[in-house]
Amino acid sequence: MDWMYLLIVLVKAVVVVALVMAVAGYAVVGERKIASWVQERPGPNRTTVPILGSIPVVGWWLRRMGFFQLWADGAKFFFKEEPTPAHVNKLYFLVAPVVAFVPAMAALSAVPFGQYVGSDGVAVPLAITNFDVGMLFVMAVSGISVFGIIMAGWASNSKYPYFSSIRASAQLISYELTIGLALLPVFMWTGGTLDLFSIVREQGGVVGGGVFGLPKWFICIMPVSALLYLVALFAESNRLPFDMAESETDLVGGFHTEYGAFKFGLFFVGEYAHMTLAAILFSVIFLGGWSIPFVSMDAMPVGLLGAVVSVGVVFVKTVILMSFIMLVRWTLPRFRYDQVMDLGWKILLPLAVVNLAVYAVILALVEG
Amino acid sequence: MQDILFYIFAALTILPAVALVFSRKSVNSAMLMILSFIGTAALFALLQAYLLAVLQVVVYVGAVIVLFLFIAMLVGAGSPKLAKRDFRNMALASGVFVLLSLFGIAAIAKTGVGTDALPVSPASSAANFGMILFTKYQLAFEITGFLLLAAMVGVIFISKRPDSGDTTTEAE
Fold this sequence. Notes:
Number of strands of chain A: 4
Helix content of chain A: 55-70%
Oligomer: heterodimer
Number of domains of chain B: 3
Shape of chain A: globular
Order of helices and strands of chain A: HHHHEEHHHHEEHHHHHH
Number of domains of chain A: 1
Radius of gyration of chain B: 20 Å
Number of helices of chain B: 6
CATH architecture of the largest domain in chain B: Up-down Bundle
Strand content of chain B: under 5%
Structural class of chain A: mainly alpha
Largest sheet of chain B: none
Number of strands of chain B: 0
Radius of gyration of chain A: 22 Å
Strand content of chain A: under 5%
CATH superfamily of the largest domain in chain B: NADH-ubiquinone/plastoquinone oxidoreductase chain 6, subunit NuoJ
Largest sheet of chain A: 2 strands, antiparallel
Order of helices and strands of chain B: HHHHHH
CATH topology of the largest domain in chain B: Four Helix Bundle (Hemerythrin (Met), subunit A)
């Protein structure tokens, strides 16, 4: 029985990792396509494969959309030579890409992707595991990945990566506080639970009434928290306009200047895995997870169909959010380093504290 | 199964901690400290104190060590010097360690080893933990907060002293 349980968890983990890797991989192509549309050019549209590419209409369309580009890029990373510069610290240099990538996958183990309502009407989370402090677990594990950048910068033993890792550590310290404070009102609202499944269950239904009705999502109840969390997520996943650690105009390639081939590929996929994780988290915490606007949680379809629908809803929200994150990257210019620090410490942090105090007072009045 | 895991996690806590003390490079020490903290978190998880386990990682691995590394890299940028072995301090530290160990052994000898674990760990959920922290352990909690405040004032005083050189003023 014990082995059976272990096997089921293992299968679930493999499915989740495979799916998220596929999404993260295609996010790379999506990013290039969105970038090209923003800049009014076609983007990757030449790569094709023998049989699939010669299907009359579909093959042509897949080629134009850059569908096969990912396969070519992936294969390239495998077949390139692995350079290891002579002046690096070998151990840290090897471990760093792994440390940057693995936490994003590990954090997924506590994220619910949907729900399954059995014939007895009890909702079960579709997650590898679901426990009481799930949200904190995700924060803790995904925060470890910054050590990948710090280690890479330090092990490279060269100036630009070194700057990059100092910047990455300062940025993490500055924005981690905002994330915590922005999420606290959500936990107070749900009665102190840190469990992601209950947080989603809380968000079914409508707040307000008539034409002013809004879905009871936390983004509608706590818009300021949602904004703070979104900005901090950009900073945490090192996305433009916050990619101080990579900033190719002044740091060449930042922490991965000395990396090539597959090790660079791990950093690269790691960034997209983190972005996927961030998008899933934001849709679960603030966009109602698998709740459909104006449909109550109890009116959702049940059984196998319900499970597929709920995962589909989360997937759609995640894709929309990732497209938004990409659009922002190709719209806004990069901040200057002092602007990043000012934004974090002088604007976001005080705003988060005030936001927390306001919701504490509101909740005390409502409940008292 | 539990016992085997305990020994693995205990080794993960203690071995890096020992290596940390003997390491002469600050960045290596910080990395070993991460391993040791993760071992401690795993031990908490083994005791079903999941909240403590997660907080250990969030606070110590996620914030404190990052800060250590930030300072170590900022200060040690130009001079990758190895720390000197200082035998007087080593003797002092060993003495304190032996004394504390004796104290611990004496305490265990007096009360006996407590093997009967609580049915539900009080720190298993956030709500339980908060409730106990602000009722039963209120005094300890307040005193800890006061100590941290004193430490903070001390740090600000040391770093802002005009004649202490300019090694810390760049830390913005």
